[in-house]
Write a structure and sequence with these properties.
heterodimer; A: alpha+beta; Multidrug efflux transporter AcrB transmembrane fold; Alpha-Beta Plaits; Gyrase A, domain 2; four-stranded antiparallel sheet; globular; B: alpha+beta; 2 domains; two-stranded parallel sheet; 11 helices; about 65% helix; elongated; disordered C terminus; Protein-export membrane protein SecF (chain B); SecF_bac (chain B); protein transport (chain B); membrane (chain B); cell membrane (chain B)
């Protein structure tokens, strides 16, 4: 029969809407202001006692706590507060009570009820422009990364040629062309060198040439190797940045590679950009030192703790063999017997120094010290008032202490590690402290928390006003059919928010603008359909035929116009960055969801209300309009 | 009411509006060529610091403070009240300028709250600009392909030309009044492409349908009928979209002010252009029923020996 939907269609619509309302629902619960506690070293846990201590410290200052919970993996804990002001005070109290072993950060904790979270539902994430925070785009100096590696090769090649007794006159690193050039006295030596280098360095692209009348080899790095060096430089910087961000005490930081040579760092809730930049730019470093002999004079030694076991100590010489600036790379692997080890590569100067010292120290132990520049809050009494200051300090701890088994050179390995995990942690720390390709901030955006809140309020208010205007207009102009379109519009917004929440997309201010624009455009499909129905009615078509033809005829037009808008939305999404992307996401999703609600849902409602009945007229004409027949 | 409807003779005015469109386009292009766009920070690179003071400020005093800190090129503006101040510093590759500005503003112990800072390196700015331009061209090309596949060459040419017309006029207004053009405005311009196309397609769809229905009518009549048929829909959709964009413009705050403005202009121009650029062009291009007929099915004939 005309204008009747089969039962399964109604059920399908009901199921979709039920699912949508469940997944959109978490957005109705406002977030709690919370203080997040996490251990400052990876692998350590926040236990129940620590959380109790923090709660007690807050309670001692007569500040109410809304709730507290520990994360399932024991890595962090949350204390929920009643207001933003309490949150700020509580953070300072907890930071002071727990000391340096824990990172205390501001966070917003979702208040999604358990039955919703058990279904995997959660609220949309808010972008930095709504939440406040800092966004950095950093660029890694790739040219410098390649240059550094070539310097290392340069010294390795010299050693290789010397060992093979091949006489060369010089090995040059041409900074301009980025090539290594080796000059020889005779062509014979050169040809042997080519064979040798081909065998040992498959990553080189070798060319024989004549330079200044002498036979020479020009060495270029293969494209693949250059890529690898770049990837290494990025990974190294990502690791270092992640470590430093952890130190900043940010609840949900994002450190992510973008494109070939860039890194995005997003720190929600951080306002002091100067401090953030200082910490991000701070250099961790390494020092390689010998363990002191038992008979060494006290003035020439220093005692340090181990990083992984704060109770263990070792006494080292004051003299430094090399620093992290000489370390060109470090990676973990397995030795011949399958035990974990860490491979370390040094630059030429570092290799020389290492060789000179370790030659005479075989059998002794060498330690690697990890040096971090940190800041802590110190409360001091000034004029009778407690003043809090951030004081920078340096923390040095031992990350490796191993026996020197033979004279070391440009590359050596650290063995005797207990586990694969320990090996990769050591390699990570060596990399963090070693010479990294320099990074520069190329873009920075900060939004203060007050502006974030203001943006939310304004965005939501303009959405409400926009929605109200459209709803009233549709009611006046299409009466009952307007009501149907309005119901579809409301469902469309719910559906849009549900989809955003399910794919855990980030909502930004332009994103809100996209939603608002979608509201205006979504009714277009209904307007098209209703205009057609009116036309059919005006042409004296029977009511049921008019409804049927209206939906049928408008469909291709709706499809065409929505697909092209979607096309533009997708282009925006893939081409755009930041604000543009946020807009593109909501616009594109809104177009897709509006096709469902404006066509399927309104049709279902119209069918339910009017389908299969004998009617002479439809309440589709504007208020105060006596027309139609 | 009878089934006979009065057909509005839209196309009667097509020469006049073609002239108006042409003049508007030329003025826009002229302004774009002469003064260009007032590119925002996103595209030029530079630093912007937006702050709120606890008390009203004397702008000259603030300028003095910045000069003392060695930031002579800083531009200081207030917006809304004398407590809300924006400082802009032209393109540098230094991310620390923002911190210097903050330090200078606080140098006399004033109570300042940071609302927003933005730093864009000039290289990144250039990239964003190139990417934006490329996106716009891609959008136009994609749209042209889609319309060409769904309709016919004359339709796709007319649709794309009307989009180009809309984009030029929106850009022209931003250039003429030297309104800041940033990333969000660019997004709005692209959204205008989507919206305006939406409109053109509805109109084109109806023209195509009417060509099939009205077998005896001349093209001008067919187009006029299509315009009249879709007039209600065009007005109402534009109106609802306009309403929500006004809400954004008035209440959305200054971060999306330019965005909303571009949409306001774009929706207006887009609605107009789907009639007087897209449809008029079809007439100028001498669109006919033959253009829309499906290609003759010759296979059937070939089957016979």
């Amino acid at each position: 029969m005309l204008n009747r939907y089969p039962l399964w269609k109604y059920l399908l619509i009901l199921v979709v809407l039920a699912v949508a309302s469940i997944y959109a629902a978490p957005n109705l619960y406002p977030d709690d202001y919370a203080v997040q506690i996490s251990a400052s070293r990876s692998g350590e846990v926040v236990d129940e006692a620590t959380l109790k201590r923090a709660e007690a410290a807050i309670a001692a200052k007569n500040i109410g706590i809304k709730g507290a919970e520990r994360a399932e993996n024991d890595q962090s804990a949350l204390i929920r507060m009643n207001s933003g002001e309490d949150q700020l005070i509580a953070r300072d109290i907890v930071a002071q009570a727990l000391g340096q072993d824990y990172v205390v950060a501001l966070n917003l904790a979702p208040t999604t009820p358990v039955w919703l979270t058990s279904l995997g539902a959660g609220p949309m994430k808010l972008g930095l422009d709504l939440r406040g925070g800092v966004h950095f785009l950093m660029e890694v100096d790739m040219a410098e990364a390649v240059t550094q590696r070539l310097d290392v090769y340069q010294s390795e090649i010299k050693t290789k040629l010397r060992e093979a007794k091949l006489r060369y006159s010089k090995v040059d690193h041409d900074q301009q062309s980025g090539k290594l050039q080796i000059d020889f006295r005779d062509a014979d030596a050169r040809d042997q060198a080519v064979t040798l280098l081909r065998k040992d360095y498959p990553e080189f692209v070798l060319e024989t040439a004549e330079a200044d009348g002498q036979p020479a080899i020009m060495i270029n790095l293969s494209e693949k190797t250059t890529r690898e060096i770049e990837d290494y430089a990025i990974t190294q910087n990502l690791t270092t940045l992640r470590n430093r961000v952890n130190e900043l005490g940010v609840a949900e930081p994002l450190v992510q590679r973008q494109g070939r040579n860039r890194i995005v760092v997003e720190l929600p809730g951080v306002q002091d950009t100067a401090a953030a930049k200082r910490v991000l730019g701070a250099t961790a470093n390494l020092e390689f030192r010998l363990e002191s002999r038992s008979d060494a004079a006290a003035g020439t030694t220093e005692t340090f703790n181990f990083r992984s076991a704060p109770n263990r100590q070792a006494t080292l010489e004051r003299d430094i063999i090399i620093t992290g600036n000489n370390v060109s790379s470090a990676s973990s692997s397995f030795d011949e017997t399958g035990r974990p080890q860490v491979n370390v590569n040094l630059d030429s100067a570092g290799g020389k120094m290492m060789n000179r010292i370790t030659r005479n120290a075989v059998g002794r132990k060498m330690a690697v010290l990890f040096i971090e520049h940190k800041t802590r809050n110190v409360v001091s009494s000034e004029n009778g008032q407690n003043v809090e200051k951030r004081v920078p300090y340096v923390e040095k701890s031992i990350i490796s202490l191993a026996t020197i088994q033979s004279a070391l050179g440009n590359s050596f390995r650290i063995t005797g590690l207990d586990s694969n995990g320990e090996a990769s942690e050591l390699a990570l720390l060596l990399r963090a402290g070693s010479l990294a390709a320099p990074v520069y901030i190329v873009e920075e955006r900060t939004v203060g928390p007050s502006l974030g809140q203001q943006n939310i309020e304004r965005g939501v208010f303009s959405a409400e006003v926009g929605l109200a205007l459209v709803v009233v207009f549709m009611l006046l102009y299409y009466r009952t059919f307007g009501l149907i379109a309005n119901i579809a519009l409301g469902l469309n917004i719910a559906l849009l928010i549900a989809v955003m929440s399910i794919i855990s997309s980030t909502l930004t201010l332009p994103g809100i603008a996209g939603i608002v624009l979608t509201m205006g455009m979504a009714v277009d499909a209904n307007v098209l359909i209703f205009s057609r129905i009116k036309e059919e009615l005006a042409n004296k078509a029977p009511v049921q035929m008019a409804i049927h033809a209206g939906y049928e005829r408008a469909f291709t037009t709706i499809l065409d116009s929505n697909l092209t808008t979607l096309l533009v939305g997708l282009i925006l999404f893939f081409m755009g960055t930041g604000p543009v992307k946020g807009f593109a996401v909501t616009l594109s999703i809104g177009i897709i969801t509006s096709m469902f609600t404006a066509i399927m849902v309104t049709r279902a409602l119209v069918n339910l209300l009017y389908g299969g009945r004998k009617l002479n007229q439809l309440p589709i004409w504007p208020l105060f309009f006596k027309g139609g027949a | 009411m009878a089934a006979v409807k009065r057909i509005i003779d839209f196309m009667k005015l097509r020469h006049m509006f073609a002239a108006i469109s042409l003049v508007a386009t030329l003025i826009s292009l002229g302004s774009l060529a002469v003064q260009g766009l007032q590119f925002g920070l996103d595209f030029t690179g530079g630093t912007l610091v937006e702050v709120q003071f606890a008390q009203d400020q004397n702008l000259d005093k603030v300028r003095g403070q910045l000069e003392q800190a060695g930031l002579e090129s800083a531009v200081v503006q207030s917006y809304g009240t004398l407590r809300d101040i924006v400082v802009r510093v032209a393109s540098t590759e230094q991310a620390k300028v923002g911190d210097q500005v903050m330090a200078a503003l606080q140098s006399d112990g004033a109570d300042v709250t940071l609302k927003r800072t933005e730093f864009v390196g000039s290289q990144v700015g250039g990239e964003l600009r190139d990417q934006g331009g490329l996106g716009m061209l891609l959008a136009l090309a994609g749209v042209m392909l889609y319309v060409a596949a769904r309709f016919q060459f004359k339709f796709s040419f007319a649709a794309v030309l009307s989009l180009v017309h809309d984009v030029i006029i929106v850009l022209g207004v931003f250039s003429l009044f030297q309104i800041e053009f940033d990333l969000t405005v660019l997004a709005a311009v692209l959204a205008v492409i989507g919206y305006s196309l939406n409109d053109s397609i509805v109109v084109a769809d109806r023209i195509r349908e009417n060509f099939r229905k009205m077998r005896k009518a001349v093209p001008v009549e067919v187009v006029n009928t299509a315009m009249t048929d879709t007039l209600g829909r065009t007005t109402i959709t534009s109106l609802t979209t306009w309403l929500v964009v006004w809400a954004l413009f008035l209440f959305g705050g200054d971060m999306i002010h330019g965005f909303a403005l571009a949409l306001l202009i774009g929706i207006g121009v887009g609605t107009y252009s789907s009639v007087y650029v897209c449809a008029s062009l079809l007439i100028y291009l001498k669109v006919s029923r033959e253009d829309l007929l499906p290609p003759a099915k010759e296979e059937l004939v070939d089957d016979r020996p």
